């Protein structure tokens, strides 16, 4: 019974923090968000450096007030990365190859992904969206656990993807509550800095 209460408390704390931080992000000026996204992309490129040709990199297409990393993804593609973005298939994430000429289809939650004809890839480097983060690399997602389960499936295949959180400074929290299944980030890139989380 105590364990159940503890889990409920953590879930409640997560939900409260998620609401607070997303409200902060939603309140950012739209023109400023565009500029900050470009600054973040430049910072991420400098941090990531060159990528080996053919390295599979997962990114994401922005929804609502998320950082727009499409210019960053395009730059990584020009360096030889093989790009993919998540599609929701039967309640789980599937990383589908993103090609310039490929049509996108709605996935729900306001996001899009390549269609079922796209190649399914296993990313080695993941640029991960989030609701909130702290400097220890703890990440708060949107509450559905998609990324945690997808990372677990990759690990079951023997793949340990490098996880890079992508967020605005405004999404930082003092301490993100976590559970056993929550994965920590190796680093977080914001518009002003790179946080090395020591993983």
From TrEMBL:
Transmembrane segments: none annotated. It catalyses: (6S)-5-formyl-5,6,7,8-tetrahydrofolate + ATP = (6R)-5,10-methenyltetrahydrofolate + ADP + phosphate. Its cofactor is Mg(2+). Substrate binds at residues 61, 66. It comes from the Bacteria. Keywords: ATP-binding, Ligase, Magnesium, Metal-binding, Nucleotide-binding. ATP binds at residues 14-18, 139-147. GO terms for molecular function: 5-formyltetrahydrofolate cyclo-ligase activity; ATP binding; metal ion binding. Gene3D superfamilies: NagB/RpiA/CoA transferase-like (3.40.50.10420). Its EC number is 6.3.3.2. InterPro entries: FTHF_cligase, FTHF_cligase-like_sf, NagB/RpiA_transferase-like. GO terms for biological process: folic acid-containing compound biosynthetic process; tetrahydrofolate interconversion. Belongs to the 5-formyltetrahydrofolate cyclo-ligase family. This is 5-formyltetrahydrofolate cyclo-ligase. It comes from Fulvimarina manganoxydans.
């Amino acid at each position: 019974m105590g364990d159940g209460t503890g889990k409920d408390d953590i879930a409640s704390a997560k939900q409260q923090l998620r609401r607070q931080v997303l409200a902060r992000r939603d309140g950012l000026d739209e023109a400023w968000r565009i500029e900050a996204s470009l600054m973040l992309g430049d910072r991420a490129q400098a941090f990531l450096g060159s990528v080996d040709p053919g390295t599979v990199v997962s990114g994401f297409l922005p929804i609502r007030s998320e950082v727009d990393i499409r210019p960053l993804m395009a730059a990584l593609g020009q360096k030889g990365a093989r790009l993919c973005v998540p599609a929701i298939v039967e309640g789980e994430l599937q990383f589908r190859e993103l090609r310039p000429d490929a049509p996108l289809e709605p996935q729900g939650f306001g996001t899009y992904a390549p269609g079922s004809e796209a190649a399914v890839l296993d990313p080695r480097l993941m640029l991960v969206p989030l609701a909130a983060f702290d400097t220890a690399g703890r990440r708060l997602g949107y509450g559905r656990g998609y990324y945690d389960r997808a990372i677990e499936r990759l690990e079951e295949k023997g793949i340990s993807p490098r996880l890079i959180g992508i967020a605005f400074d405004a999404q930082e929290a003092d301490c993100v509550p976590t559970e056993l299944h929550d994965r920590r980030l190796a680093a977080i890139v914001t518009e002003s800095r790179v946080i090395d989380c020591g993983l």
